């Protein structure tokens, strides 16, 4: 009985995580489609940082040729 409960709990949590990730990615895609080039760079940098691809602590420089204004 305890094993079944543990399996069901793990399955529910796994499905919830997949749904949450899908909703987040849908919002990111909508923001990228409607944003300016500066917004796209900023979103990409924040997404990379959230996924572990960015340098922690130090702000990253935008790619050469991309002028990004700091957020207010």
Feature tags:
65% helix; 72 residues; 0% strand; mainly alpha; single chain; elongated
Question: What this model shows, in words?
Answer:
The model has no long low-confidence stretch (mean pLDDT 81). It is built from two helices and no strands. It is mainly α. The protein is elongated and about 60 Å long. It has helices spanning 2-34, 37-50. The N and C termini lie far apart (54 Å). The longest helix is centred in the first third of the chain and has 33 residues, at 2-34.
Question: How many β-strand stretches?
Answer: 0
The helix/strand class is mainly alpha
User: Mind telling me the C-alpha Rg?
Assistant: 18 Å
Overall pLDDT: 81
Strand fraction equals under 5%
Instruction: State the end-to-end CA separation.
Output: 54 Å
The unreliable regions are none
Assembly state of the chains shown: single chain
Largest sheet: none
| Overall 3D form | elongated
Can you give the helix content as a percent range?
55-70%
């Amino acid at each position: 009985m305890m094993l079944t409960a543990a399996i069901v709990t793990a399955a529910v949590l796994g499905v919830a995580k997949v749904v949450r990730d899908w909703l987040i990615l849908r919002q990111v895609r909508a923001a990228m489609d409607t944003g300016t080039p500066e917004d796209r760079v900023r979103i990409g940098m924040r997404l990379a940082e959230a996924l572990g691809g960015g340098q922690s602590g130090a702000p990253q420089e935008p790619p050469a040729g991309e002028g990004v204004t700091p957020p207010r």
